[in-house]
Design goal:
With 766 residues, the chain is α+β, with helices and mostly antiparallel strands. The chain contains 15 helices and 29 strands. α2 runs antiparallel to α3. The protein is globular, with a radius of gyration of 33 Å.
Length: 766
């Protein structure tokens, strides 16, 4: 450990440790950012945690000199070797910084290097001063096209062009302009067009920083002489769309002469089947947006890829175009045959689970069987079936109970259709939205010593994505939850909850029929090669809204009007059903400082209102405080509502839920070494009731006082990032406790047993 304090322990003789690299920007326009420009520096000092300690270098220095020993190799692998100062690398980085400024429009920019040597400690500091100078500004733009047809298509919507007079001469924007025009042309039939045909010429005058820019779309013959059968400056029409259903990469390469077992023509497509017709023709037609007789469009090609990728039965998808027919120089258009090559994946999966338990001498066993079929109806429908059962024998005196065991078994069934399944809707709308439809049913039978309970659910929902997967929607027209207790010990509910409506509700028959909508949005973008710097700020928005009981209440009100349905509520199947409205919104913001450090903020708000046939929200629909994703100084369901004095008893556990939720969190995240990440966090928030319930004193929300009842916590976390999932360990400490009769400011006098809470979970909290 002491050896790690010497940052130059493993530094070769005659070498210097690159201790610090700093950038100073002189830019009167405010365009250049120091953090952004640092991304162009390759030779940087060892990573610092909290801008101070070089933790990974310290771990590396804990290793011994003998690199043949496994311990030393393992320690070095987790750490980071010392970065050695190199004059050649420093000059190279300075040149990269200069080029970056030139690309941003500062053509006369220069970089000065200042080095500071600490000979005693064998360390070197490097400072880059970026003198941007005045930017070159585009004064005018001229567009040159080889013919009027290309001009008309490329300039069809000039308001969406990126480069305009008055802008800096920024090469990243020029590259984006090339991409914009290329995409526009390829969406208008120009199948073979590439951005390399577009060039820019910047004309400057001596002594002036104004630029006359010329965008030239070069003629085809100057750019493409190696492929005479494909005219990059000609529009192409799709002649045939052909599916090859049993494509084998590396084997089926002569697609024009593919020998099919069966050929099916359906609508405007041709399907070449192999031994099995594993997908129906209508499914293939619905998921194809390449239409014979229409111009080739890149947009339709991408939609076809997206649609086919939603079919789980497909393992491999490739689309090729072969130029055919009229290819003379004088022909105004060319023709393409589109070959859609598909490879079938595995359709059926099966798994089994076995578990054994021993609870104070009572032995038990649990078994689970899972089966899935990804093509149950030859439309790539996915069937998922789960069967599970558990049994545990009880010892001792069980004379007062109705069962001498714990037993549970259940069945879950779900079917997902890769299509918008709904009556009375046009096929064009269903194809446009590209939503998946899910149906699910479940039945769970439970036997406990005190009671027998049956829980059944049924649901129907739609899911779809848009805007490059930045927006995700889930619409649930109907979701039913039904709980039925056919038998229990004598006076069971009155004994456990004589005057607690929440606890009674958990064990009484109840019925919920709801409608819901979920929305997810993120600003995380796909990085492009010409992007000047990685994305630093990412916003994420989650919305959830649902209502329950309105349809049933309307029907009941029409046929059986009641003046006081609170005292004599409406029922379905002899059970009082729930009626409420609930909404939640969560906003997260991630600010990436560099590749190893980031700040994250989160705020969340939710409210649920019972009305009509209900006086209280269903227990499972109420909010709770604390836990791994809440205020982490409290265990789950031990915070609130309001100033409610919880005691961690079963009755308080039931009572510690509410109708209003408010959460605020901030977190610093840092990559440490190996797969380990560290975090420091601060949380605040609470829950409240929307009505003054007798069994939840001090929990009622009051606008003028709620801020005094915000709980606060702080803590530290360790995360293990395995790329495909992340394990999170957080230790939270109470800072402000609003509960009645509690220490209000435990941050001043902390008590480890009273004020700490440890959490284990998967994934980031927000």
């Amino acid at each position: 450990m002491l050896a790690a304090c010497s940052s130059t322990r493993h530094l070769p003789e005659g070498s210097l440790l690159l201790d610090k690299v700093k950038i100073h920007v002189n830019d009167t326009t405010g365009t250049l950012d120091e953090t952004e420009m640092m991304t162009y520096v390759r030779n940087r000092e060892n990573n610092r945690m909290l801008w101070s300690a070089k933790l990974r270098l310290g771990i590396y220095n804990m290793s011994g000199k003998d690199s043949t020993k496994w311990w030393n190799r393992w320690i070095r692998k987790m750490g980071e070797p010392p970065v050695i100062f190199s004059e050649a690398n420093t000059l190279s980085d300075a040149e990269q910084l200069r080029k970056a400024m030139v690309n941003a429009g500062f053509l006369k920019a220069d970089v000065t290097i200042d080095t500071s040597l600490n000979a005693k400690k064998r360390k070197m500091r490097v400072d880059y001063t970026l003198n941007a100078g005045e930017p070159y500004v585009i004064r005018s733009i001229e567009y040159v096209f080889p013919n009027d047809t290309l001009r008309r298509v490329a300039m069809g919507d000039s308001s969406r062009l990126i480069v305009r007079p008055g802008d800096f001469l920024d090469r990243s924007e020029l590259e984006m302009e090339r991409e914009t025009i290329t995409t526009r042309l390829r969406n208008h039939g120009y199948y073979a067009f590439a951005k390399e045909y577009i060039t820019f010429n910047a004309d400057t005058t001596e002594g002036s920083r104004e630029v006359d820019l010329t965008l030239t779309l070069n003629p085809a013959l100057e750019m493409n002489t190696s492929a005479p059968l494909v005219d990059s400056h000609k529009e192409y029409i799709i002649r045939n769309v052909i599916y090859i259903m049993d494509y084998s990469p590396g084997v089926t390469e002569d697609i024009e002469h593919y020998e099919a077992t069966d050929t099916v023509k359906y609508k405007d497509i041709t399907i070449l089947y192999g031994k099995k017709h594993y997908l129906r023709p209508d499914v293939l037609a619905d998921n194809c947006f390449l239409m014979p007789g229409e111009l080739y469009k890149l947009h339709n090609l991408n939609k076809t890829y997206s649609a086919l990728s939603r079919l789980p039965i497909l393992k491999f998808i490739n689309i090729r175009f072969l130029p055919v027919g009229n290819q003379s120089e004088k022909s105004p258009v060319g023709f393409l045959d589109a070959y859609i090559l598909l490879t079938k994946g595995k359709s059926q999966y099966f798994s089994a689970e076995l578990e054994g338990t021993n609870s104070e001498g009572d032995f038990g066993v649990a078994v689970g069987l899972n089966y899935s079929h990804r093509n149950i109806g030859k439309g790539s429908e996915t069937l998922i079936a789960k069967v599970h059962g558990a049994y545990e024998a009880l010892n001792g005196n069980i004379g007062d109970f109705i069962h001498n065991r714990y037993m549970e078994y259940g069945v879950d069934l779900g079917v997902t259709f890769p299509k918008f399944k709904a009556p009375f809707l046009r096929d064009s709308f269903k194809r446009k939205i590209m939503a998946g439809t899910e149906f699910n049913l479940s039945l769970n039978y439970q036997e406990r010593p005190e009671y027998t309970r049956i829980i059944s659910t049924a649901g129907w929902s739609y899911k779809w994505v848009e805007n490059n997967k930045r927006n995700r929607h889930t619409f649930t027209p109907i979701d039913i939850n039904y709980v039925y207790l056919p038998e229990s010990t004598y006076n069971f509910i009155d004994q456990i909850a004589p005057d607690n409506p929440l606890l009674r509700y958990s064990y009484e028959d109840h019925f919920i029929m709801r409608l819901g909508y979920n929305f997810y949005h993120t600003t995380k973008r796909t990085e492009r090669p010409w992007t000047r710097s990685p994305q630093r700020n990412i916003f994420t928005l989650r919305l959830n809204a649902e209502v329950a009981g309105n349809l049933l209440f309307t029907i009941n009100s029409i046929f059986t009007h009641r003046a006081d349905f609170h005292q004599d509520p409406y029922k379905v199947f002899g059970i009082r059903y729930s009626q409420y409205a609930k909404a939640e919104v969560d906003l997260s913001f991630l600010h990436i400082l560099n590749e190893r450090n980031a700040f994250a903020w989160h705020t969340g708000f939710g409210i649920g209102v019972p009305y009509g046939n209900s006086t209280i929200l269903p227990f499972e629909k109420r909010f709770y405080g604390g836990g791994a994703n809440g205020v982490r100084g409290w265990d789950v369901r031990t915070l609130g509502p309001g100033r409610f004095p919880g005691t961690n008893s079963v009755s308080d556990f039931i009572n510690q839920c509410g109708d209003i939720r408010l959460e605020l969190s901030a977190e610093y995240r840092a990559k440490l070494f190996w797969i380990l990440e560290g975090a420091l966090f601060v949380d605040a928030g609470n829950i409240w009731t929307i009505r003054n319930y007798p069994n939840q004193p001090y929990g009622f929300f009051k606008f003028k006082e709620f801020y005094k009842e915000l709980a606060a916590a702080y803590g530290i976390g360790i995360r293990m990032d395995f790329s495909y999932f992340l394990l999170r360990f957080d230790l939270g400490m109470k800072a402000h406790n609003p509960a009645i009769n509690a220490e209000p400011w435990p941050v001043i006098h902390p008590n480890w047993h009273r004020d700490s809470s440890f959490h284990f979970s998967i994934g980031y909290p927000f």
